[in-house]
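User: Before I run my own analysis I want an independent prediction to cross-check against. Here's the chain; please return only the structure tokens and, at the end, one sentence I can use as a sanity check.
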Amino acid sequence: MELIIYLLIGAIAGFAAGLFGVGGGLIIVPILYIVFTQLNYDPSVLMHMAVGTSLATIIVTSISSVTAHHKKGAVMWPVFRNLAPGLIVGAFVGAGIADFLSGQGLQLLIGGFALWVAFKMFRGANIAVDPSHHLPSTAKQVMAGGGIGIASAIFGIGGGSLTVPYLNRYGVVMQKAVATSAACGLPIAVAGALGFMWFGKQAEVAVPNTIGYIHIYAFIGISVMSFITAKVGAKVAHLLSPAMLKKCFACLLTTVGCYFVYQGMRVFF
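Assistant: Structure tokens:
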């Protein structure tokens, strides 16, 4: 039964990854948190395990998603090369920061972040991209990659929630922003997952079937299905209008944000 749940999570998360370029983490993290809670795992590491496992699955999801987007010629590889160094370093640093935060602190951070991005995306859904805007210099892109990497590791996401708005802001159309974001998810996921494995080992997590903060069975089940469904999501992304993509993206983030803010605030009441 547990494996079936992980397969279902993977199917939903993979589709979302291909559709929105978010790596699926915004869906995987809250669902894994619920599943791990029901399995009575140590409450102090629940959130860290959900985030770490999410990052590990994004390795597989992003490969599937970016392959589909690359066939459409939508991935901006020069931009990816500029962002990648910062993404890698930032993601490992972010895993270390997350290790120091409490479970409730992580919930409130993720929830608040999701709501902020949702507001920004929904507000700009019908605003046409200004093609006169140009991406900043290579050095500034590397620094932006570092910031995106840190935040992505803390939140357990593939970076799409930051990479997509960042590229959109500089005149990149939604489909290309989503495709490039999918590519950026790979270095974030690899560095972040290694970080959560390392810091989890130091914390000596006493939960069966784990390597550090990463749950092996959840990783396998989610990865298998997400690899398949991410391709479907990527195809659908190229059929929708940019405005519709932004609005759907914002609705997804709002739902996740409200859930985590509620969970994080419960401890105070």
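Sanity check: The two ends are 34 Å apart (CA to CA).
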